[in-house]
Amino acid sequence: MEYDEYEDYDEYDQDNMMQQYGDEYYDYGDGMQQDQDFTYWGHFENCVVPSISQGVQITLPLLLLCMAMKVTTLFSLPSSVFHFLSIGSGLVAMAFFFEKYLFYIISLTVLGYFALQVANQTLGKYRGAVCAVVVVTYLVIMELFLADPSQWHRVRGCQMIVAMKIISVGFDVDQGTLKEIPDVIEFTGYCVFAGSIIFGPWISYSTYALAAQGVDLDLRYTATVVVKLLQALACLVISTCIAPVMFTSESWKYKWLHAYRDAMSFRFSHYFISYLSETTSILAGLGATGNVEEGDKVKWSFAVAKPLNVELPRSLVEVVTNWNLPMHSWLKNYVFKTSRHLGNFAAILLTYAASSLLHGINFQLAAVLLSLGLYSYTEYVLRQKLSDAFSACVGAKACKPACSHRNKKKNVFVILTNVVFGLLAMFHLAYLGLMFDTDDSELEEQGYDWTHTLSKWSHLNYASHWVALITFVFYWLIK
To answer: For residue 79, what pLDDT is reported?
Structure first.
């Protein structure tokens, strides 16, 4: 069973952007719920318009920097100039978003390159493993002992992106994907590349190098950027203006609707960051497909998340696969595959450990990741058992058209089974996503502790965990 069939890999801490600029956004939810003079037009004026305006205002400098990076590639400049420009634009972007706290990112970049060179010169191998140990140790020490919690929370997502880049370079050199370690200018330009340093996503060094190619700008490029930006802003509006005023009754009878509402708000904040990262990546020159020299039309695409597959999932397996595609690729290639010789179970544990550590020392996130992993694995093995027993297309992942099952996807039994599991996945998402609400912005800035997580779940009577346990017992009885 492949790792990507059931593993979770929550991405760049998309909540960071909303938290970093929390003062820039208005908290509309409670006020709107209590305002008896609420009108849709008033809500549009007081929430939708300011959210879009401030969203554009905050991201516009980064968008301009990314566009400038792309324009410079049209002048056939030496690659070294591109890397210097990447460093300069990345530092400007970090200074704008993180101000003086950018020294955390710079120090990690310097430490990562030093670890790469030491491993290369002394061992000649194990560069990826050495970088992983050094980088994770740095992150843990900084978070637990040295960094101010509010400052660290502000740059944690950016730190994760840089850490993933450093580790990936080490493993790519070990595996021969890269012939040698990039020089210090190339490496730094890659780590702080403006197209991915602020909102993600993770990109490989080879992908970064492609951005230096001078693919001409055309209508497709412009249209793709505009569409991605509009999708990002639409998700921002849903997260901040639409979801908070859904199901406004405070009655305990509606607590599951409230859970779904809060989880939905969190998910759409993630989609906002995902689409925004797609926008910056494409603006900076990533995602071009097609051979221009052979007369092919260039298409621009750089998928980070697939919201439809998360909102209307076939299974939890599909959710965790489509939540963050670049993070999935990183964990699969650099953690799961490199540790699979220890056995699938050990590889899965190491993958979860890597994901949790990269996201920070956080009981809330670790509990959600662990729960989601157990849920996904239980669902996978149960549906695989049912699929084999009834020769039906009811597996956690959709069958290929030429599968050998007798009961295909249009069979009534198959449709009902897949719908039930899809609804069950939505139930679990509402329960798990409730952890990431923003009831207390000060507490969120410091990081939630275990009492917050358990109090949220106890409010819902730990229903999701009980359902998951019953599901596993049922699988164990029929296996």
So the answer is: 86
